Structures are given as C-alpha cells and as structure tokens.
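B., you asked whether I could sanity-check this one before it goes into the benchmark set. Here's the sequence:
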Amino acid sequence: MIKHSWIAAVLLCLMLFFLLVHEVRSERILALDTYLAFKVDEHTFSFSFLKYITLLGKSVVIGFGSILIILYLWIVKKDYLLMAVFSIGMGGVDLLKRTIKNQIQRQRPDDQLVEASGFSFPSGHAMVGLVFFSILAYLIIKEVKRNTLKWVVGIGFTFLILLIGLSRIYMNVHFPTDVLAGYALGGSFTILLINLYKVLGKFG
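And here's what the prediction gave me:
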C-alpha cells in the first residue's frame, strides 16, 4: 500500500489544483488571496532578501541550471535515462505552465514591486521552480551517504522552494492562490517524473 502512496499524492495535488482552477474561474475574491496580502516596506532587509530569492525562479536561471544538470548527467554520471526524464520533464512543465496561463488568463495583482509579464495563474516560479529544485535535491540526496545529510539537503531545498513562492506573493506579482496552484501542479509533476525514472530504471 505504502509502495504506491505516490499515486495518492499525485491525485491529491491534482485535486487541489483543479479546485483552485474552479475557484479562480468563478472570478470571486478568494479568502486566501485577501488573508495573505502583505504591506511591504521596500527599505527593509526582508524585501531586499526576497528580491534576490525571487531571481532563483527566473527562466534564465532555471534554464542555465538545467543545462548544467544535463551536462552533469551526460558527461559525469552517464545516467542517460535520468538525463532524458529530466530534459523532457523540464520542457514539459514549462510548456504546461504556458498553456494553462493562456487558458485561464488571470491578470496579475496591481502595484507590482518587481517586473513581471504574462498572466498570473499558476505561478511559473512556484511550479517550474519546484520541479527543478526538487529534482536537484533528489540528485544530491542520491549521492549523499549519511542519512542526516540527506535530511539537511531535503529540508534546505524545501525551505528554498517555499521562499521562492513567498517572494512572488511578497513582491505582489502573484496572488497566493497562483503560488499554491503552482506548487500543487509542480508537485504532482515532480512525483510523476521521479517515479517514472524509478520504474523505467527497473527495466534498464
């Protein structure tokens, strides 16, 4: 039962995502978006810190990082299966993000504190960032021997992913529900990718 619990996790993530899609399309003012609205002072340390954190989810950073990972898997590890799964996964999640944004066409919040273009739902930083940094964490954890260090890596990357999502809300370029939807869909995508790699690896 536990062996296939990842399927339940994917289904729960997808259910949450489609619930958010339904709520956003209803065009009601959502309680979560109102509750998590921040009053931001641009002269504080937290603003400066999160302004740098949000850069980690930018397409150019994720794209460059993806190239480095592909080269590492190809040249150093010679893990061609994981290289293929990762490449298809990153391309697929980016295409999925763009498609959904153009379908939902939710406008971004007013008074943005950093430059952001395109539609708002779901958050690409949250969705694509979660997939990228989760797989990066998975690669590192695979190489680490000590269980304590595995936990440190896992918790550290989880914290980073949450900070990236928080930064998008804090900079007022996304509604909280955009970020939550990005996490839900990105989470389901990541679980599918990792388990696809494990399943295919058994037949390799």
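One thing to flag: The mean pLDDT is 88. Otherwise nothing jumped out at me.
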